[in-house]
């Protein structure tokens, strides 16, 4: 009796009558300090959160319901666009610049809004595809420059895609690295990660469909914001864990979206943010240097053409990568025999662009006294189009370059749907779309092409 009186009063009656414990599947020690009349299930149901706000990334935090709509912003460091970089100017005598400190250093110069507001001082764009896909990415780069004043934009693209950025003044550095290579060399892979990591990017954008492997590549760059497209199937499993924002396209071929193939990324980049309205997307524009113009002028002058008095013919069938096709339209080249019939209706001098020197003999056999220009880079093609009277081309980069330089253009497509997809608002761009009625480009009507040449405002000699 003396031993039992030392026990706490709240516990002694509970232990003195073991038969009063209910038979439950839970361990008995869970109810040692809970009165019988207050016992409840130990696993309560989770509360249901219903909201219309888009989650930033459901892989990272399933309970992140977005920004609080009742939160009031308006402080100096959280309102409006970012300011220009306040760092001193670069030292021209130093090849590495002046006071370009890594993130975390020189805090007396860095703006507080860099952390509070999420400013972007350095942005890396990993662009998948060739010349066509990189050319259509130009409006996205312009959107980034307008949305984040003072941002430095770098690009990572394939060897062919890198050539496009000699037409873009908004890009600081363009590095050659093929993001579409599923099995890169280990030394190239690790070296590129080290280069990107050493540049301390605030944002990394990628147009390659990311799985776990590509998401890990972006994660190892240590960029603060990692934004990328992901596969629309099971190959995207695990990629969201390493990305800050993901976009799921309609198909595994992003180029099938045509001119607006990056509309999901554009919508996210230009979204309104607090007091910043939605950023408008400008049309495609390219810049041509004086050196390019001089080199190309010497080429077409040697071929017998004069400035402003020739029409560019682009889209001759060839197996060369310099054809500048789109991955979303593989049926976009015509044989030289069909081009010869089309060129008969041009009163101005046609200039045939060949992507490889081996095509020169084929053109000379079919067309006598033909003006042939060998061009493989998009910069030289843009300079050739800039000095021309107009362009007749299939669905290659020549169409987009003609629209960017506001030159009259006749675009040949295999179907009307693809024409509207790759050249929206064609009438406003001085572009005449002619499509095949059978769905195959080879069956396009030559007479319809000749009638469309009235867009060049020249006297036609129709055959």
UniProtKB/TrEMBL annotation:
Coiled coil: none annotated. Residues 47-57 have a biased composition (Basic residues). Residues 44-95 are annotated as: Disordered. One of its GO terms (biological process) is photosynthetic electron transport in photosystem I. InterPro entries: PNSB1. Residues 80-90 have a biased composition (Basic and acidic residues). One of its GO terms (cellular component) is chloroplast. PANTHER family: PHOTOSYNTHETIC NDH SUBUNIT OF SUBCOMPLEX B 1, CHLOROPLASTIC. This is NAD(P)H dehydrogenase subunit 48.
């Amino acid at each position: 009796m003396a031993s039992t009186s030392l026990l706490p009063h709240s516990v002694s009656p509970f232990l003195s009558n073991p038969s009063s414990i209910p038979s439950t599947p839970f361990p008995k020690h869970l109810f040692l300090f809970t009165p019988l009349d207050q016992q409840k299930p130990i696993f309560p149901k989770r509360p249901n959160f219903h909201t219309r706000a888009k989650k930033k990334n459901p892989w990272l935090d399933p309970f992140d319901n977005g920004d609080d709509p009742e939160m009031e912003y308006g402080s100096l460091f959280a309102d409006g666009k970012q300011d220009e970089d306040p760092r001193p100017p670069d030292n021209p005598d130093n090849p590495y610049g002046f006071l370009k400190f890594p993130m975390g250093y020189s805090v007396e110069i860095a703006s507080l809004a860099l952390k509070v507001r999420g400013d972007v001082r350095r942005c890396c764009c990993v662009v998948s595809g060739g010349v066509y896909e990189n050319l259509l990415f130009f409006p996205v780069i312009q959107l980034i420059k307008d949305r984040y004043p003072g941002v430095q934009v770098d690009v990572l693209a394939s060897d062919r895609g890198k050539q496009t950025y000699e037409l873009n003044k908004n890009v600081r550095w363009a590095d050659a690295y093929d993001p579409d290579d599923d099995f890169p060399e280990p030394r190239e892979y690790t070296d590129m990660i080290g280069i990107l990591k050493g540049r301390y990017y605030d944002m990394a954008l990628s147009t390659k469909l990311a799985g776990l492997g590509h998401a890990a590549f972006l994660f190892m760059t240590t960029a603060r914001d990692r934004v990328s497209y992901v596969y629309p199937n099971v190959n995207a499993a695990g990629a969201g864990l390493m990305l800050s924002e993901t976009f799921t396209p309609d198909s595994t071929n992003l180029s099938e979206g045509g001119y607006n193939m990056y509309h999901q990324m554009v919508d996210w980049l230009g979204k309104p943010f607090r007091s910043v309205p939605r950023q408008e997307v400008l049309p495609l524009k390219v810049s041509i240097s004086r050196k390019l113009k001089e080199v190309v002028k010497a080429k077409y002058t040697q071929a017998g053409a004069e400035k402003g008095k020739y029409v560019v013919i682009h889209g001759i069938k060839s197996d060369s990568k310099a054809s500048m096709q789109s991955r979303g339209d593989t049926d976009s080249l015509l044989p030289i025999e069909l081009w010869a019939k089309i060129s008969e209706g041009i009163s101005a001098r046609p200039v045939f662009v060949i992507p490889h020197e081996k095509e020169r003999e084929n053109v000379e056999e079919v067309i006598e006294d033909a003006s042939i220009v060998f061009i493989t880079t998009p910069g030289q093609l843009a300079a050739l189009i800039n000095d021309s009277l107009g362009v007749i081309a299939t669905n290659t980069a020549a169409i987009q370059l003609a629209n960017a330089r506001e030159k009259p253009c006749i675009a040949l497509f295999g179907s009307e749907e693809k024409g509207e997809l790759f050249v929206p608002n064609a009438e406003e761009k001085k572009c005449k779309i002619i499509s095949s009625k059978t769905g195959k480009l080879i069956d396009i009507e030559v007479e319809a092409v000749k009638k469309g040449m009235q867009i060049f405002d020249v006297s036609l000699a129709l055959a």
